[in-house]
Amino acid sequence: MIRKFIRKLLGQSELPTSSHATKQAAHKKQPVNVPVRVHQIDPALISRHAIRVTSTLQQAGYRAFIVGGAVRDLLLGFAPKDFDVATDATPEQVQKLFRRARLIGRRFQIVHVPFGQEIIEVSTFRASLGAASVPPDPASTDLPVRQGPRARRNELDHRPHAIDASGRVLRDNIWGQQHEDAARRDFTINAMYYDPTAQTVLDYHNGMADIRARLLRIIGDPATRYREDPVRMLRIMRFAAKLGFEIEATTRQPIRALAELVRNVPSARLFDEMLKLLLCGQALTCLRQLRTEGLHHDLLPMLDTALAQPQSEKFITLALDNTDERIRAGKFVSSSFLFAALLWHEVHERWQKYIAANEYPIPALHHAMDETLYVQMKKLAIQRRHIGDMKEIWGLQPRLEKRGHSAFKLLEHPRFRAAYDFLLLRCEAGELDATVGQWWTAFIAADASQRETLLSEGEHERSSRRRRRGRAKPQASQNEDKLTLKTPTESS
Predict the structure, then answer these.
(1) Catalytic residue at 186?
(2) Catalytically annotated residue among 186, 210, 229, 298
(3) Cα 8 to the chain's mean position, in Å?
(4) Among residues 82, 195, 221, 421, which one is catalytic?
(5) Within 13 Å of residue 391, how many CA atoms lie on the same side as its CB?
(6) Within 30-122, where are the H helices?
(7) How many CA atoms lie within 13 A of 41 on its CB side?
(8) In 10 A of CB 148, how many CB atoms?
């Protein structure tokens, strides 16, 4: 009755279903209840704050479960980085139970419940009106823009459910039952619900079997689900690389044909997803997956050119391998450094081109940086704070190459360490002479007297280079004189 009323409200008519489809739908309403002796989830890996949220909701008379990626990681024996909770309580009801809870989100309205540095994300069970089982409402695709994005956003705020012309879900805030919420989730391994109180897992779509088979399978019709949210194509690449899972053939099949839908996703959301890809511990594998499926064109359009050059490919491979090692070791990783490495080939190419066109080196470098970032920002909205850091890392490279008396001042620069690591990668990739990196390594570790010696050696080396260039110039002048003397003879 409730579903029929909602469909009538949205202008959707009831469609006849076959007896097979009816039986399948009825089956999906009854999940497999997986006991603790089967799932073997370690309670020590569960956040006490997530348990507190679920127990508070349950004590208030609501159903509440840990859901999504957290359950998947727990089943695989990993400690989840964050925890999501799903409940039949509405966002307003959830907010009343937690003093500091706040409502966020327009596309998907959720509640953030903070506990110090940890935030538990609470969502309400959603109806599967946007799923493949229900055809989209043609009227909901007509979303006129009157005075720009803000007017369109205000208009969408009055619609609990809306899609655009490509099928992408713009609003999905119609509450439903748990089995509908499970059908609305992306992959089978992310559609399981864990009750910390009963220590049972509810499995609606054979997620346990797919985890055992190490298989990624989308729920519903793959093409429809990718149209609803093109970011799912990026997510499945990340999960495949991070977990070492295979992508089920039907799930993979439409990705290349639908890759261009990624350009419809807001650039800020694409940036967030790109960060997750680069920081998942398998960045190089992720990038290769993206290239294989043609998904990189609307994320890093200059990547093909960079990876086509052996030296640049080696540089990017080294940068991503080092990143993955640091993540696996639990060390800090700079996102700015990663994007600086991925775009360096293009910056360097343009820089050399402008120098060849008789621009001074430093202005030429800044020209190359601005031009490269302008092209990149059309596809991926890199945050301003990252852009500032990237420019500083790039801008310090010619200063580090000089190894002059400014070395003392460079040591105090806030981006020196990142720029130094960047320089070492350039040396290791063969772009610079290895002695440049070795000099800086020795200079950092040296005491005051040793640093003076190193500076003298550096100055002597630069003088030698200048003398060699100076000896080459007279030879060139001599040749020019010969040509000048030769011309009248030929003309006579």
Answers:
(1) yes
(2) 186
(3) 39
(4) 82
(5) 18
(6) 36-39, 48-59, 69-75, 91-97
(7) 28
(8) 8
